[in-house]
Amino acid sequence: MTTAPLARTPRRNRRKAKEIATAWAMLVPSLIGVGLFLMVPIVIVIALSFFRWDLISDPVFVGLANYSSMVDSAGFWNSVWVTVKFSVFAIPGAIVIGLLIAVGLNRKLPGSGVLQILYVTPWVAAPLALGIIWSWLLAPSGLINDVFGTRTAWLADTTTALPVVAFVYIWQNVGYISLFFLAALQSIPRDIYEAAELDGAGPVRKLWSITLPLIRPTTFFVSVTSLISSFQVFDLVYGLTDGNPGYPGGTTDVIAARIYNAAFSSQQIGNAAAMAVFLMVIIVIITLAQQRYFSSRMTYDMS
């Protein structure tokens, strides 16, 4: 009577081993891609941050000298401050507007499908091309000034340049954000809202007590990805400033542009690598802080 279970055990073990082997076979291509295109470049950049190299002569080990010059650079800290201000301008606005658009699209009014395509089109377009087009629109003789009847140099004024860049960033990314929120809204069971309505909850109460808590996982994802994107913004700024990130007066000198200029304009690969490592550490710290904030406030079970 004990032979049958014993006979099934080797068969079960073989099946389990086969499932594990299949899982690893499916994971290996992704692991190779992550290793070659993510982990290896990170290791190389960290290593280069300890060298002085101009892409031509042999690298020279300088230890922490690149980090020391980075910390002592007023221009570098200005870039950090500009990037932080840009993120503060852009991320909350993009998330709030994206959520409002998603709420509107979730009503499934006529033409919603066309609107979804229109909203997401800027996100799939090349940021550099969008930056150039918007620089034409925002020129003193451009369409924007013609509409308002002014001749304002939006991108040449130190008070308006960065907010305008943030506005274009929001315009480009709001469709991408709204699609994620729309998917989250459509996953909320309708009977939850019906029960709230029976209890007398109005639209604002339902939004605050039901919708926002249940879409926190999506809010976390959108916040993290948007923050990373905003700290790495470069091509959009490059296009808007006609290839002169920082103009005017350093007000658009985002950190990614400073890294680019250090590496390919000044041939200071070590300094650029040190700044890239600093940027990576800051992004990781902020992401972990966001994860800790949302982890105890997220709900995945909507049954």
From TrEMBL:
Principal location: membrane
Top-rank taxon, per record: Bacteria
Membrane topology according to the record: Multi-pass membrane protein
PROSITE patterns named in the record: ABC_TM1
Pfam families in the record: BPD_transp_1
Annotated GO biological process: transmembrane transport
Transmembrane residue ranges: 21-51, 86-105, 117-139, 159-185, 269-289
Domain ABC transmembrane type-1: 80-290
Key words of the record: Cell membrane, Membrane, Transmembrane, Transmembrane helix, Transport
One Gene Ontology cellular component: plasma membrane
Compartments it resides in: Cell membrane
Family, similarity comment: Belongs to the binding-protein-dependent transport system permease family.
Descriptive protein name: sn-glycerol-3-phosphate transport system permease protein ugpA
